[in-house]
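Weekly puzzle thread! Below is a chain. First person to post its structure in token form gets bragging rights.
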Amino acid sequence: MIKQKTLRKRTKHTGATSQQKNLSIQFSLDGFSFCITDSESKSVLSYTAYNFEKTLSSPEQLLEKVIAIFADDPDLQTEFDKVYAIHQNNLSTVVPEVLFDRNDLLPYLNYTVKTLQTDFIIFDELPVIQANTVYIPYVNVNNFIFQNFGEFEFQHHSTVLIDKLIASSKDLIQETCFFVHVTASSMDIVVIREEQLLLCNTFDYQTKEDFIYYILFVAEQLQLDPESVPVTFLGNITKEDPRYQITYEFVRTLNFIRSTTRFFEREDDIKNHQTYLLLN
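Winning reply:
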């Protein structure tokens, strides 16, 4: 069912000050990861990630994987003070506040997502850019989490991504910030200029050629020169990755995002930029 658990790490010296713990979960059709933090000190106590052997084809298959993980992983078989979940999928769009009607969400997705009248559509507020993320969550997984833990908070991954990257862009010297968040089968490209969002889009890809095509396509559409605009990676990519290597053939400057967490500083098999959404 699961190809491998990419990492399970616990801190040897946690600095925990309470017995209460918080659980943060991130899930997609590619995998499932979670971290546990101390409720008072906010220190990370453990992190676990699972990779699925192949990208799943439906939310129903995802639920089967999640149920199996919860049944097998003892770290998830306990009580938590707070539970927070990140839905990672391409069933979303960002709508400026001036164009937003919270009582009629379906039309916003009809342009980019195949929707059904029965789909449950919700939104996250994005006050940092005066906009809202409209999306379809994995309702079946939400129901399962609720059955296990009761009330919990959840957001779409693009909400978390935009919010964190705009904050991160304040510390960068370049005027235009070109971010690429990488997963096994999709990539989010986020372009920010002077703390304003120019673009946030998700592209599914199969090959490294697809991967570089979308980067160059977005650069062309926004009239950005790959010779002068750095690309900053985060997510599931390293310097040894073929996707990184092919990008380096076309883009002069490549970086990895600076993460505030130091949880994996001494790890060889995972880097801090790979867990940016969940841990940063």
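Puzzle host: Confirmed. Bonus trivia for everyone else. Residues 59-72 form the longest helix (14 residues).
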